[in-house]
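Hi support team,

I submitted a single chain yesterday and got back a structure, but I'm not sure I'm reading the C-alpha cell output correctly. Could someone confirm the output below corresponds to the sequence I sent? I've pasted both exactly as they appear in my results page.

Thanks,
R.
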Amino acid sequence: MMRALYSGVSGLRTHQTRMDVIGNNIANVNTTAFKAKQMNFSDMLYQTTQAATGANSANGTGGTNPRQIGLGVKAAAINTTITQEGANQSTGNPFDLKLTGEAFFVVSDGTSTFYTRDGSFDVDDAGNLCMASTGYIVQGWGVDENGDIVQGSVGGINVTAQDTFGAAATTLGRITGIIDSNDGELENKTGKQVTVDLYDKAGYAYNMKFGILPTKNVTNGTRDITNREKEYGLSDTIYKVDTSKLTFKYTVNGETRILSDSASPELMEDLKATIWKYVAGDLSSGSASAYQISGTHELGKKDSAITISLGAFIENTKYNSTTLTDSALKHAGPITVEFSGDIGYTKTKPTYPLSDNVVVSKISQEAVNYIYDTATATNGAFSSCTVKPSLGTGTVSVTSLQQTYVDDNGSSQTDYTFKVGTTEIEGGANNAPIPSSLYNDINRLLALGNESKITNTYTTQEAKETETIEKGSFKITLLGMTDATGASVDISSLVNSGTTSWDVFYNTSNGEFKYVGQEGNKSFSVNLSMLGDNFDNIDIDMSGTTNGNNGNKSSVTGKKLDGRKIGTRSGVSIGTDGIVTALYSNGMSRKLGQICVATFPNAMGLENSGDNLYQVTAGSGDASIVDIKASGTGVMTSGVLEMSNVDLSQQFTDMITTQRGFQANSRIITTSDTLLEELVNLKR
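Hi R., thanks for writing in. Yes, this is the structure output for that exact sequence:
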C-alpha cells in the first residue's frame, strides 16, 4: 500500500516538471529563434517479489515469470527541438539574419564564446557587428590587403572601418555605333564629333572630344582659267550729284494734292529749275524771298524740308491765274517739295538743274570708297571725289581682271581683281579683297574715265588638288579636352608627339570593323600621362563600330569603362554566404569580413545560457567553425529573423494530457489513503 502511495507522489512530481517545461515553451512563443523543449518519462526501480524460473524437465514443470512491483515514474530526458527551424519574420533591417540548417552564430563577450540562432544584430558605437540584446560581438573572418577573406582565426567584424573608397583614373573606354559615309557632319572641318568622359587619379572628371573624318586621297592636276583684262584711265575727280525727282504737294480744304505737269508743263519746268537753283545756291536772295522759298535739302537724301508759295511764285513771274487749269492753285497755301533721294556720279562738275547731256552713272557708295576719297562741297549741291593718294596722282591707269574657271564641284566661278600697276586694290574690313558683287559697280566707276578696249584675253593654268574619299577608311582625331568646369586642358604635348590621330578601317563589302591604328588592333591608346602624373593612359576600343547605312546620320557614342571619383559609404549588405560588404556612392563595394558559423556533433547537447545563448557541453561535442555556404550547412538571409518554433497546438495538447496525468496520480494517493484508513479501522 505504501508503494502505491509513493508511486503517486513520483507521478505528481514528474507531471509537475513536465508542466514546467510546457509553461516555459508557451512563455517563449514569441522569443526570437527559441527552440521548444520536450520532456520524456521513464519508469523507476522495480521491487522483485519472485524471481523468474526456468522449465524443469525432470519433474515436468514449466518456468515462471518474475514478479515485480514498480515504484513509480521519473523524468527520462528534456530534449531541445534544436533542428526544427522557426518560421521567417521579415524586418527589413539589413543586419537581421536568419540561418537555415543546423548551424549557429558565434558571439563573444570578450572572455567567453557563445552560440546562438538569434540573428537580431546591430552596430555598436565602435562600428562592430554585435547582438542587439546583449552587445556580444559577432565573430567572423577579416580580409587581407587585397580585400580577400582570410579564413583563419575569428574575431569581430567592423562595418565602419572603411568610410571612403578611393578614386581611380580611367584606363579603358569604348566608342560604339554606326558611321554613315553619307552623314553631312563628316564633311565639317572637324568631322563627326564624339565624346568620351574620364576621371583622373584624384577622381576629377574630364571630357575628351574626338572628330571622325573620312580619309581622302589627293590627286595633283591643273585648272584652266580664262582671263579678260580691261585697262582704264581714272578721272582725277568725279562728282556725286543729286538726281532726285521732285514732287510738289499742297493742301486744299484739308485734302492733300499733287501738282502735276498737266496743270501747266511750262510752269512745272520753271518751278523745278527754280528749286534746283535754290538748292545749288544759284538763286538770288531777293527771288527766294519773293517766292517765299524756305528750308534746306541734304544732297542725295530723301526729304521734304523745302517749301514754296505757288501764289507768290505766280505773282512774281510771267504766269497768272488764266494760264492755270486749276484756279485754286493761285490761292493754295505753301507747297512742299519732296526729293526722291536718288544720286549718281559724273566726271564733270555739274550745274543745277542738270542738263540732258550730262552723263550720270548709278554707282554704289561702297564701290566709290575703294578708289576715291569724298569731301562735301561748300554749296551742298554735290560732293567732289578725288583718287586716293595711295593709288597715285595725276592720270592713273587701272586694270580690271576677270577670271572664269570651273571649281572642284563642277560649278562655274568668276573672280575679279582690280590693280594699279602690280598693286591690288583692297579695302573694307582688314583690307579684304573687293567682293565680286561690286565688280559691275567698279567697272562703271572706272568707265567714267578713259576706258580702253579689252586689251587681252588669254588662258592660264593653275595647280589644283582633287580629293576623293577612300571607302571604308576614316581618321579619328583628338580635338580637345575640357575639365568639369568647361575649361580647356592644354593637349599641345600630345599634339606635338603626334599621338592624337589614328586611322580606322572597315570591311568595304559589309562595313564590319577591321582595325584601328594597325592590323590586329581593336583599340587605340591616348597617352594622357604626358599631360601630368594625375592621368593614366586610356585605351579606347572601337571594335563596336560599323560603317554602313544609318539614314545619312552617324550614331557613334563614347563612354568610359572604368575609373571613378571618391566614394563615401552609403550602406552595408550581408550576403547569403555571410560576407559583409560595404557599398559606396561611386558604385564600388568592398568586402569587410565574413560571418562564420559553428556546427556540433550533437547540437541538442548544448546548454542554454539564457539570452538566446548556448554553451558547449561534453554532450554537444566541440564546435566546428565553418563557412556556412562552402560547408553546405545552409545559408544566411538578410532582413529576416527566425521565429520561435513553439507549436501552441502541440503545447496545449501536451498541457491537457499532463493535467490529466497529474489528476490520475493524485487519485492514487487519495485511494491509498482510503485503504490505509480501512486498515486502521480494523482495530476498533
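A quick pointer for reading it: The longest helix spans residues 648-681. Let us know if anything else looks off.

Best,
Support desk
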